[in-house]
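Troubleshooting log. The previous structure file for this entry was overwritten by mistake, so regenerating from the original sequence record. Sequence copied from the archived sheet and checked twice against the printout by T.R.
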Amino acid sequence: MADDLKDLLKDPEDSQELDEEIIEDDGKPPWEEDDTPVESESVEDDSDAVDDSADVVSVDENIVDLRKDKMTAFLKILNMLREPCEDMVVENGKICQITNKKTCIYEIDADELFGNSSFMMSGVNQKYSLLEPFVKQEVDVFLEIKKHGYEFRDSISKMTFSRPHKDHMENHFISKDVLSSKLKTKDSRVFEFDFEKNVLLRLGTYSKTLTATTIRLEFKDEKASFNIQAADNTATTKINLVELKDELDITDIEGYVTFSIPTFQSFINSGITEIKAILHEREEKGSFVIELKADLKITDDSGSIPISAWMIGELKPF
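Regenerated output below.
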């Protein structure tokens, strides 16, 4: 891992990703770690089987009950990750991994679903499609984690996947301690703001219409505003999505910072209708971290799954 998270997360202005193109990145990210566990493709191709000495996460053989509501919540997590991430790593019920294009880190506390279970899933987009019929048909599903792989089953069908392969994984688990040490945020925050449903709907519509992949956070005259501009730099359309004034805890900032719109969109894709955005200063002057936070409900009267996404941006002059 790089010495600083800034070396892991790209400024979105330097990324040419579009929502439709995020899963089409053929290049490997330059932050690979040799000791990271991985998973094979699905069972249809059993040429990827590994021996007992393969480098994988520790596996506690157990059965996870994913009855209707829990399976629905699990599929929403896959829907959130299937475009920005090729793979998903669950360690002791937690997910914390960087995206393929290094624009974001997702942190998901999914122990309400998995308890302390650990497993890894390659090809998240494909697995989403394979598991979707379970949710559409509202059946009870069980996830059985075994030494050599894992399987999803209901009373009719069973899907078996072989256990992780080291060399096939794009995405890696990041421990909470490592994440904290790399973010290097100050104790003070710049603001905390709630993106409510109506604002998120506008963000989705405006960014899609203008093919915009970044949202621009501008600081001027002791105010801040989130702005969307057409991807074509010659276009004249600029939308002031929402303005912040009373929410600012630090007002002596001048310039703008850009963040990735697909990260916001991934929350919307999972059915989340409100996102709390918290902007932190980093120890490095002119560097900021925005944290997007939300709770993914399992049911209206049961638990929820806390989700955070972290993005870094550098302050630039107008």
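The chain has seven helices and 16 strands. Archived copy saved in two places this time.
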